[in-house]
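Worked problem 6 (solution included).
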Amino acid sequence: MVQELVGAIVALFCVALVYTGMAARVIKQYERGVLFRLGRVADDVRPPGFTLIIPFVDRLAKVNMQIVTLPIPAQEGITRDNVTVRVDAVVYFRVVDATSALVKVEDYKFAVSQMAQTSLRSIIGKSDLDDLLSNREKLNQGLELMIDSPAVGWGIQVDRVEIKDVSLPDTMKRSMARQAEADRERRARIINADAELQASKKLAEAAQQMSGTPAALQLRLLQTVMAVSAEKNSTLVLPIPVELLHFLERGNRGDAPAGDARPEREPEQKQDQGPAEIAPQEGAAQEIAPPEFASNGDRAPGTDVDGAPAPDLEIGRQTLAPNPGGGPRAD
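Solution. The predicted structure is:
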């Protein structure tokens, strides 16, 4: 009898152990337990810790209450200014109502992912390319609002949405690079022009100041020479301003005596290729010297020393010779 009682107690104890093993549940700190009894949700949500359920009657579902990081696959779309881009993002959300997350949606993670992809495509179509590149904060807020609106009914709260990367076509990248280069060149030219304007104003003031004292220009020239000579140069190019030459010319004119005036140079006579012609002066008697003859006094006119006929005489370019036909002949 005692042995039977001991055996029954041991059997009951084993059954209790098995029942306890089947009914015991441990809920972690970051989880909440939703109890389904005969398919219906119990009113209370089981807190973290040790809890018991009825085997074969209750079913305990654990819901993670941590913040979930859900990457959104890259979505390709056309912006409002007709530019094809690929945009990917990331969503941070957490479950605030475990019962609604299990009852109202089949798979809340998949639902949030699909809603995020749809909202991202909608944002791409409503935005310009410049907004996607430079005004991301506003787009992140709009995207968060679009995802959070339906997720509130699922017991999910979207904490943050961030656009990670915007991929552009290669042609668009080159066009943007040329645009940025042109903009930088424009700003550089404006800065150079502004610098030239300021420098011209300062130079005009300096020139006006030096115009009262011409010696200041010479001193400035000497300073320039000293600055250039400080370098190791083999050739020195010295610019001489016109004002300095005028100043030195006025000084030379003031120092020269009044009577020391040089006569003006007579114009040079041009040499002609033909024989020189000398015009006789007016009022002067023109004398033609007779030809000189040898000391032989009995020489006949028109003959040389030996008595032979004298050769023809050339006067200028005309040659006078006896003409048998009568009268002088001009060759």
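Discussion: Residues 170-211 form the longest helix (42 residues).
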